[in-house]
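From the pipeline queue, job 12 of 40. The input is one protein chain; the requested action is below.

Action: predict structure.
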Amino acid sequence: MNFVEYADREMMMMDLANKLAGELNSHLMHDDTATLAVPGGTTPGPVFDDLCAARLDWGRVKVMLTDERWVPGDSDRSNTKLIRERLLVSRASSASYIPLYVDAPEPEDKLEALRERVEAALPITVLLLGMGDDMHTASLFPHGDGLAEALAPDAPVLLSVRTPDQPEARVTLSARVLKDAMSTHIVITGAKKREALERARKERDPMAAPVISILPEATVHWAE
């Protein structure tokens, strides 16, 4: 794991956006397409605000989420809504988007079709993740429903998960897909997330701290 500390959040978000754009551009110099996987939530929004204006051939970039709530794309709880409003705009509007949600009562109704779309875009070229105070990443929650399957080396690329404190099901990329990314970045802010990172680095059980499945390959970006 690499750890990068920044003087302030604004500097971090700008620098991280530049890094992601640079890595995508470098990949496109010797490959036809690139795949960018990103999280939802509030933390990465400022990264998207800068990244969407990057000068690269967005028409050759495939964008997907690392996880999604099973809600329509216009719901305020949808990560897709965030992506469409803050990343897939400006120059990045020409990127291809691979949704993790389609209109169906439950994710299990459409998982196979969604997996095929995801599989076709792998491996991930550049991966951006967040991390919760509980040491979860994507929708891999400590001791959560389906976590053991999601952590397995032969896990499917995409799984459905449920948590007792959330009203809807979720879908998430499995740990093996995240670990196979060519470049991995984790962005966190604040003292609580820094403390959680230190706890995770000491933890040996990925069931208790799912983020440790990804940490060895990651660069962690942190600002107070």
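Job complete. The two ends are 19 Å apart (CA to CA).
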